[in-house]
């Protein structure tokens, strides 16, 4: 059971209704987190709106951002975030399962592999990404503007993901029951 309650229908503003409906249609952010965040009209709803723009708009391909999001979510054992799927990314669970060994998978492009390596380093901490060779590798596949977007994607997924994990919307154990490959991914 979530540690914070979902917004009641009577509390929803037109903006909250629209953002929650958009979340239901797209799959990410999930309607449940949008329904909790909607309880704060500035920080919460502002984040839902920002996250939707970051995930669905911008320079980077949506699929690339979605695989990065899932990779980081699995790394921090967020059951909720690891089971949420964008309906627009074109991923199936076989592709998601191959994220555990993306380096050897033919399903990911060289550009996607570089982004996933960066996500792994980002998750490892600021010292892991604070190196010239990391950015030199990124620059072979991404423009400066794309690197900014990728960094923001990683930061939002890691930081907000920690908060969302603590809300206990879906526990890691429940997520592994829904997606058994998750348990194997972190062994």
Task: Report on the architecture of this protein.
With 187 residues, this protein is mainly alpha-helical. The protein has 2 domains: 9-56, no CATH class; 62-185, AhpD-like, CATH 1.20.1290.10. The protein is built from 12 helices and no strands. The protein has helices at 14-26, 31-37, 43-56, 62-75, 79-83, 93-97, 110-124, 126-129, 132-139, 144-166, 172-178, 181-185. Helix 1 (14-26) packs antiparallel against helix 2.
- CATH class assignment of the largest domain: Mainly Alpha
Helix content: 55-70%
**Biggest sheet record:** none
CA(first)-CA(last) distance: 26 Å
The name of the CATH topology of the largest domain is: AhpD-like
Q: Please indicate the percent range of residues in DSSP E strands (runs of 2 or more).
A: under 5%
Q: How many beta-strand runs?
A: 0
Query: What would the average pLDDT be, to the nearest integer?
Result: 90
Q: Give the overall form.
A: globular
Radius of gyration (CA) equals 16 Å
Structural class: mainly alpha
CATH superfamily of the largest domain: AhpD-like
Low-pLDDT residue spans = none
Order of helices and strands: HHHHHHHHHHHH
Question: Which architecture of the largest domain per CATH?
Answer: Up-down Bundle
For the record, the count of structural domains works out to 2
**Number of DSSP helices?**
12
